[in-house]
Amino acid sequence: MRRDVFQAIADPTRREIINLIAHKTLTPNGVADSFDVSRQAISKHIKILTECGIITITRQGTQHYCFIQPKKLDEVADWLADFRKIWDNRFDKLDDLLIKMQSKTNIKSK
């Protein structure tokens, strides 16, 4: 079953795993040591992240290491970009309104 990136980030534990691996390359056991859940549960989360293409697991000697694939998260960033534009526009309008209100207050206080 091929999953998409939105399924990966839907779960808070997977988001935290992404955050951990983005800052430091870890083995699956190293990831599991950072959580108070079973290694089996973390293994399932890592499997989903791998299926989504957000992480890859590479063997180095006898160890397996998890590496983040940040380009895969571009899909989320692209989707959010439109919303960011909407909210930036709304905040700009709010800034303008607050400046006008502040100007009126300054004029009245003189």
Question: Can you describe this structure?
Answer:
The relative contact order is 0.13. This protein has two domains: 5-72, Winged helix-like DNA-binding domain superfamily/Winged helix DNA-binding domain (Arc Repressor Mutant, subunit A), CATH 1.10.10; 76-109. With 110 residues, it is mainly α. Helix 2 (12-23) crosses helix 4 (39-52). It is elongated, with a radius of gyration of 22 Å. It has helices at residues 5-9, 12-23, 28-32, 39-52, 74-109; strands spanning 55-60, 63-68.
For this entry, give a set of tags.
110 residues, mainly alpha, Arc Repressor Mutant, subunit A, 2 domains, two-stranded antiparallel ribbon, 5 helices, 65% helix, elongated
Topology:
Layout: H1 5-9, H2 12-23, H3 28-32, H4 39-52, E1 55-60, E2 63-68, H5 74-109
Antiparallel strand pairs: 1-2
The fraction of residues in strands falls at: 5-15%
CATH class of the largest domain: Mainly Alpha
Q: State the major sheet.
A: 2 strands, antiparallel
For the record, give the distance between the C-alpha atoms at the N and C termini, rounded to a whole number.
Answer: 69 Å
How many helix segments? 5
What's the alpha carbon Rg, rounded to whole Å?
A: 22 Å
Low-confidence stretches: none
Which fold name fills CATH's third level, the topology of the largest domain? Arc Repressor Mutant, subunit A
